[in-house]
Amino acid sequence: MEIVNSCEKINGGCSHHCEHTTNGPLCSCNHGYQLALDRKTCVDSDECLSGGACCRHFCRNYPGGYECSCRAGHRLNPDGCGCDDVDECLAETSGCEHDCVNTLGTYECFCELGFRLDQDQHSCISLYGEMEDEEAEEEDEDEQLEVHRLPDLLFRKVPQLLQYTAALHSRYVSDEDDRDGGDREVEIQRGRRGELRLSSSIVCLDGSFGDDCSVSCEDCDHGVCSENRDRCECEAGWTGIICNKMCSQGTYGPACNSLCRCQNGGSCDPVTGKCVCPPGVQGLLCEDGCPRGHFGMHCRRKCNCPNNGHCHRLYGGCLCSPGLYGRLCHLCEYQ
Predict the structure, then answer these.
(1) Which of 28, 171, 309, 330 is the most exposed place for a label (fewest CB within 10 A)?
(2) 267 vs 47, 205, 257, 272, 275, CA distance in Å?
(3) How many whole angstroms separate alpha carbon 300 and alpha carbon 47?
(4) Which residues span the domain enclosing 257?
(5) Helix (H), strand (E), coil (C) string for 118-182
(6) How many domains does the chain have?
(7) Does residue 292 fall inside a structural domain?
(8) How far apart are CA 160 and CA 240, in angstroms?
(9) pLDDT by residue (tens digit) across 172-203?
């Protein structure tokens, strides 16, 4: 009896691959495609829509596959799925005039003490105006003091920023002092002066706050202003001076003070802490692998393996039992 190859004529009606069996042609598809209901036609499998893609940030589907991409401030990991933070400070592409601090997905510029950040968020402006020319400073150093009056204090600016010589003194001058030409004021200053060093404390005015007094309540992004209008109180899942940064990976909740407990590469929602599991695992803490016969994101995709076979929990490839082989484990070694 002559055996007729059921795949010989028009590929058995299969769009892609055909394997001859005793029951007729067995169709299969290239990677990125799946069989339609007629079990012969191959249609594109939208991994982005189905959740089968491994992309960390963005996913773009195309016929036969998909492509991952990342948010600004990140670059695609060599595995083609994950996204790695770009350290703009290390790459010297930030444009910060003074100091640069890298954060997840972006960076921030900061100024040295005595300066504040300009509106371009990169340049630094002196809080005390430009320093006098060196020649003028040498000429006036012993002859004239630059004195700033505050309640009960006299401040004499010295060349180093934010270091002053201070003398306790009332801001009010009596008529007698005026008649004496201010000699009494100078005498008190010389007799009771001391050093006042402002190395880390900055007092912001006019409702401003922050390291360089450059932000105010109107800048609070995902939060509200405090009762004293001196800081932003962030919503759960947000942090930063103006509440514009999401909790870093591994933290969540108010002030990002709670630690995620997700396992097996799972990440947690920055607000609620609920675990988001990668393909192939499930459970409240992503602690369980997909049950037999299922794979992919949320373990929702069913394996296409006959004979109650099971598949790889990530990619869905059939894992054959001893004695079976083939793409669908449908061939027996001892036939």
Answers:
(1) 171
(2) 20, 41, 16, 12, 6
(3) 12
(4) 208-276
(5) CCCCCCEEECCCCCCCHHHHHHHCCCCCCEEEECCEEEEECCCCCEEEEEECCCCCCHHHHHCCC
(6) 2
(7) yes
(8) 30
(9) 444 444 445 444 444 434 444 444 454 455 67
Residue corresponding to tokens 């393909």: 279
Q: What is the distance between the alpha carbons of residues 310 and 321, in angstroms, rounded to a whole number?
A: 9
What sign has the CA pseudo-torsion 129, 134, 135, 141? positive
Whether residues 293 and 330 share a domain: the answer is yes
CB neighbours (10 Å) of residue 254? 15
- The conformation of residue 119, written as its DSSP 8-state character, comes to T
DSSP state of 214: -
Tens digit of pLDDT for each residue in 3-25?
Answer: 678 898 889 999 999 998 888 89
In terms of domains, do 261 and 287 share one? no
- What residues have CB less than 8 Å from 310, skipping those under 6 apart? 292, 293, 303, 318, 319
Query: Are 335 and 302 found together in one domain?
Result: yes
Residues 256 and 286 in one domain: no
CB-count exposure of residue 258 (10 Å: 0-12, 13-18, 19+): middle
Q: Which whole-number Å values give the CA distances from 10 to 39, 166, 167, 327, in the listed order?
A: 15, 97, 101, 21
Categorize the per-residue pLDDT at 42 as very low, low, confident or very high, splitting at 50, 70 and 90: very high
Same domain, 269 and 295: no
Q: Taking the CB of residue 8, how many other CB atoms lie within 10 A of it?
A: 11
Cα of 8 vs its chain's centroid, Å: 56
**Structure token digits, residue 30:** 């290239």
| Strand partners of residue 187 | none
* Residue range 245-295, pLDDT digits in tens: 889 888 999 888 888 888 888 888 999 999 988 888 888 888 888 888 888
CA nearest 316: which of 280, 276, 266, 282? 280
Phi, psi of 245 (to 5 degrees): -120, 130
Please indicate, yes or no, if residue 129 is contained in any of the structural domains. no
Is 68 within the bounds of a domain? no
Q: Flag whether 294 is in a domain.
A: yes
How many other CB atoms are there within 10 angstroms of residue 242's CB atom? 20
Predicted TM-score (pTM) of the model is 0.36
